[in-house]
Amino acid sequence: MATLVIAEKPSLAKAIRAAVGRDYEVTNAFGHVYEQAEPDAYLPASVPDNPKRKGKKIWRIEDLPIIPSEWIKLPKSDAREQIAKIRGLLKSATEVVNAGDPDREGQLLIDEILEELRYKGPVKRVWLQSLTPEAIQEAFGKMRPNSEYKPLSDAAAARSRADWLVGMNLTRAWTVTNGRLISVGRVQTPTLALIVRRDEEIEAFKPKDYFEVWAKVAHANGNFLAKWLPPDTDGPSFDPEGRLIDVARARDVAAKAAGNARIAQYKAEKKQRHAPLPYSLSALQKAASSRLGLGAQAVLDIAQALYEEQLTTYPRTDCQHLAEDQLPGVFAAAEGLASSFGVDIERRKHGAFNDAKVTAHTAIVPTGKDASRLSGDKARVYDMIARACVALFMPPEEYIAASATVDLGAEKWTATGRRVTSPGWTALYGGQADGEDEGEDSTGPTLPAMATGDQAKGLGAEVKSLRTKPPARFTEGTLIDAMSNIHRFITDEAARAKLKETSGIGTEATRAKVIETLFDRQWVSKKGKQLISTPLGRDVIHALPDELTDPVTTARWEDHLGRIAAGQLPPDRFEAAIADFVRQQLSFVKRMDGASAATVPSGPSAPCSVCGKTARRMESRKKKGAYYWACENRDHGLLSDEGGKPGAEFTPKKGYAYFAVETWSELAFLDQPRQC
Questions:
Q1: In the chain, N or C terminus with fewer CB closer than 10 Å?
Q2: What is the homologous superfamily of the domain 209-274+397-467 according to CATH?
Q3: What does residue 258 show for φ and ψ, rounded to 5 degrees?
């Protein structure tokens, strides 16, 4: 035997054998066959055993932090037989091909097999974006040295170690402090915080009434509606957002909206709207949640199945663009689908084909293989992917965007309209937009053809009474979108601008699993499509310091992992920074007393007497019947209890330090040269 191919999973090995099996020996892993050792493996023998958990040591705050100097990986119990098989095959291999999935984890899980089994021979890497025989054969003809992909493996290992350091140390610390399991995760905790804060924003929301005035205007070519345009929005008649809140003013304006009118300005522009970009995984999850009501994990499972059945390309992609040399193949796939949708297409280069915007992966598109056997949700998700692909080769939608300003009753009124002249790609969706974020030009009423200076007539006006609405609760789709675009939730402008360039929190491959974890821990429940934080989930977020719940911290970590994957940041510097973060967090926990507000709060809440944020009433562990209040804002101290309500700020006795911890919310120093 000359060359051994190690595939990530059996289905991938099967596809490779079918395509190139005559030339290679092919075996497979089962995903990760090794796992990080548990903290007990790093603790001294002097740590007592846990009498309630056989073979486990007790959790003690004094044993923290646990920061391995040498990381231990152990074979998974159900993978030992396969590892032994791979070991035997490696003995006779003169060369190995890493056929992990084309991502960081896929790179690492084969690399760690070779490392743990101490293989020293040459290794190549095959990058499989599609599992059709043709695509596999082409990829094997373009193999590169595996060493070129080491930064991907480094990033995956750094991510795994960071998750371990944060999760294992801080879960133990907060659990011991609270006397109940409090799981802390690098991604799960800030994701939970997004849901909790959205829910609390909704519950604290107080709707406000406001008004709009709409006039009916008659023109020789037809009637239309125009909205009153105030000369300014200062003064008591308007709220800070410029909404009209004075109903008497609204009625006065409406009373003048009858009689002669003039078209003060009219514009009509020919515009085009091109088909949207094809899907990344997060875009597909968001769209399928909205249209099909599917959960994020269900969509990932379907996308993975479609890939393994050779019907679509690699699913765990964060990219919505395609390489320019993919154009012929993607068009060929679209040609086979267009007739089934009853539309005509022609070869054209959509903006999606852009090498400059392609990352390690490309957008999810069909391979052109027959998918007629599909049914149920799998067929519906495939249909979404297929239509998005076919739309790339259809003409843009063409329309007239019109706007008019009307002088009527000594006031100005404005109207906009939209008239489709050629449906283009929207014919694929019944002449409608495809559903996601279409923008202001996607829909609208029509306006009659007019000209500036035309005469018109006001036919009266209506005062519409409206009410402000709270933000919508998260769905799985919108939560995935929020995790992908975390900069939208950052108030600091400089931080928002920087985070806009990052990949958000979590990755395309892990976000669905994070959401499932929130369900499993009963921190989040689901009502219809809506995600709602449970009392336990809220208590966890209220108990933890801002540094653990702030998505900025995790988003910057993801940015640094991206830099490791690009070969721009040594992984040991990142791991050292994570270890420092863990030490600081543990220092905070260890300085707290048993009576501190670190306890997961279960008492009543009320506005803080110092800052107005949420404070909770706590009972001292050291003195039963003694109460105090702890605010979620850690910029000030504890509050006295005055008749069951938050009182004045006070300084606890020595040893009761609670909020005395420096803010540490980013790894900003990694951007600077490290001094040695």
A1: C
A2: Topoisomerase I, domain 3 (2.70.20.10)
A3: -135, 140
